Every structure is written in C-alpha cells, then in structure tokens.
Amino acid sequence: MVALTDNAKEVLRRLIANSNGQATGLRISVQEGGCAGLKYILGLDANARKVDQVYEFDGVQVFIDPFSLPMIDGMHIDYVESVEAAGFVFNNPNIGNRCACGKSFTP
C-alpha cells in the first residue's frame, strides 16, 4: 500500500478538479530510466485499468500497475513547497540506492 499526506491529497484534489473531467486519479508507475536505473512516472489518468491496484484516500484515487507495485509498496508521498521548488516527494522503503540528483533509484 502507498500513503498520501494531507498536503499531497489537497494538491491532487485541485489538479483533478482542474482537469475538467479528464482525470479521476493519479497514476504512479516505475519505468527504466535515469542514472540509477529506475524512475517514477506520475500523471493524472481518467480511469484505472483492469490490472491496476487502486487505492483511495479521502476521495483521491491512486492507480498502480502490477509491475510497479512491488517497487513502491509502502511508499509515502508528500507535496512540499519551498523557496527553491515545489513538488511531490517520495519516501520509498524499497530503495536500495538513489542517484546523486535524487530522481532515479535501484531497488
């Protein structure tokens, strides 16, 4: 299971509401890429696929495909804003190593 902080849920609610009915939830997947080998891919999606694991957090749906689920199971997702940047932050207990820039990982 993944978890969303209150900040992450609030931002996702806004993004979904602003999608004009084009999105019902957040899709999280892991794909090959980045300097460490794997990277997160996030995007709003209209519907879950038949094979997806679907989580719901206070009305916010998260869709995860079967390939990605073992690599992000137990992950906590937050949204932070600072002077330098704003964005989603992942605390993933399944990461073995992470690249220097923090954008990719290995299990």
From TrEMBL:
Superkingdom of origin organism: Bacteria
GO molecular function: 2 iron, 2 sulfur cluster binding
Chain segments annotated as transmembrane: none
One Gene Ontology CC term in the entry: cytoplasm
Alphabetical list of PROSITE patterns matching this protein: HESB (PS01152)
InterPro entries for this protein: ATAP, ATAP_core_dom, Fe-S_cluster_asmbl/transfer, FeS_cluster_insertion_CS, HesB-like_dom_sf
Biological process terms in GO annotation: iron-sulfur cluster assembly
Domain Core: 2-103
Family: Belongs to the HesB/IscA family.
The protein's name in its UniProt record: Iron-sulfur cluster assembly accessory protein
